Give the backbone structure.
Amino acid sequence: MSAQLLLALETSCDESAVAILRDPGKGAAPELLSSLISSQIDLHRAYGGVVPEVASRNHALKLRPLVERALTEAGLRASEIDAFAATRGPGLASSLLVGHNMAKALAVAARKPFLSINHMEGHLLSSFLDSDVLHSASQIPPHLALIVSGGHTMLVDARSLGDYALIGRTIDDAAGEAFDKVGRLLGLPYPGGPEIEKHARKGDPTAYKFPRSMPRELNFSFSGLKTAVRYALPKVVDLDAELSNLCASFQQAVIDVLVDKSLRASSKTGAKLITLSGGVSCNSALRTALQQACESHGLQFLACPIRFSTDNAAMIAFAGLLRFRQGFRSDFTEDIDPNLVLCEPHP
Ligand code: KG4
Ligand code: ZN
């Protein structure tokens, strides 16, 4: 197989992102020629969360110059790209439409295939982006994937590329959403996750006894934890002095539940490898805790490289490339799907 070039766009929420990936073939690892992200976080911070119309208008403004910069950085013309990928869902409809339509337009103009990619599959596969586990093999090893983002908390039994079963999910807030909501309660800027982690480093994780909610089976629930933080706040005399302890105690409660359920899930499916991805996987305390738990249970652990943890187009390009190798192509009539699911539960 000769080298293949794939350009991917990601606009599911508030990051406009473009990546170009080169697959050298012949057993060599794919090479990321460009990965650009234009973050809108500063624009949305004033509102305490993402405003869909502001997000889509910015994608429309930012995406074309970003594609041109990525091509320049890679030393390529659009006509040299072999396939164009974009995120189909899940995400905000008005944001998804911008990237999905632009990738279609680029593919039509270059007379090349279009690949419509599931954002959650991008997160799931991102754990393998820097790993030599894959290289030219189109197959991923069977594993248990913990995906923790702003919109999702999922445990996936990943048996091979495209063969996934959902074995655990949140029944209320996602882990990242809990970080963001508790961040708001504590008066921290959006998004709360990185802010809470920063303060937690200086705090005592045992200072407050927050609940470890363990709903049935392998599901998660984080809304009770958020409420526990809310009830604890009026009793705090000096919030500035207690901020680090509150952050550390909340973060530890989230981590304990994520680690416990991941271990249970892997023993249920028999997986020997646990992967961690999604925006919350930036959290170094979570990475360390899951890594140590895996080591003490004789399991392998692979975390998504931090630079690909939050939304980016490299993970969409990578998922697109693995699918492309499998022969996957999308029709130009393919529509976005804001509620797209990655997989269903085991029958
Ligand atoms: O994957 P992502 O970029 O977007 C979605 O697909 O949702 O995840 C964003 C989420 C936000 O909720 C953010 O607060 C959280 O990831 N996050 C973190 C950290 N960095 C980002 N949560 C905890 N600790 C972090 N260091
Ligand atoms: Zn995401």
Q: What stands out?
A: The CA atoms of residues 211 and 225 lie 6 Å apart. The two ends are 38 Å apart (CA to CA). The beta strands are 4-10, 15-23, 31-39, 83-89, 114-118, 143-148, 153-160, 163-169, 273-277, 300-303. The longest strand covers residues 15-23.
